Amino acid sequence: MLAASTKRAAARHAASFVTSRIMLTPITSMQQTRTIYGGLYKMAKKMMPRMSKTEKAALDSGTVGFDRDIFSGSPKLSALDKYSAKLTPEEQSFMDNEVNELCEMLNDYDIFHKQDLPLAAWKFIKEKGFLGMIIPKQYGGKQFTAHGHSQVITKLNTRSTT
C-alpha cells in the first residue's frame, strides 16, 4: 500500500517538475513549439466528443459559411469581405420610423422603477410587429436579416438598458 502511494506521489512530482520546466523554459525553436502545441492539440482532440454525421453534413454542405472554415481548421479571412452588413430598404424604413417612435416612448428611469414598459409602448410593439422581426413573412412576420434584427435591438438598448 505504501509503495503504491509512494509511486503515485513520485509520478505526480515528476509530472509537475516537467510541466514547470516546460512553462518556465522559454520556447526557442519551432520544433519545441510544435511538440508542445501538437501534444496539447492531441490531448484536446481526445477530450472532445466525436462529430456526428449530421454535424459533419452541415459543415460540408457549405451553408454555414465562415463557421465551416473555422471548424475545419482553415479560416479564410478574405471570405469575411463578401458579407455586406447593410440594412434592406424595409429594415431601414422600420429603423427610421417605428424604432425611432418607440424610442421616443421609452423613459429608462420610469421603466427601471416600474420594472415594466408603459402600456402604450407594449401596444405599439405588438401593432408594429416588433415581436415578429425574425419570423418569415409567410407566417406574418417581418423576416428581417440577423443584421437588421441586431440593429433594432442595439438602437432600443441605447434608449433603455432595462
From TrEMBL:
Q: Which organism does this record belong to?
A: Aphanomyces astaci (Crayfish plague agent)
The upper taxonomy is:
Eukaryota, Sar, Stramenopiles, Oomycota, Saprolegniomycetes
Q: Which residues form the Acyl-CoA dehydrogenase/oxidase N-terminal domain?
A: 93-157
Which GO molecular function annotations are given, in alphabetical order?
flavin adenine dinucleotide binding; oxidoreductase activity, acting on the CH-CH group of donors
What is the top-level taxon of the source organism? Answer: Eukaryota
Q: What is this protein called?
A: Acyl-CoA dehydrogenase/oxidase N-terminal domain-containing protein
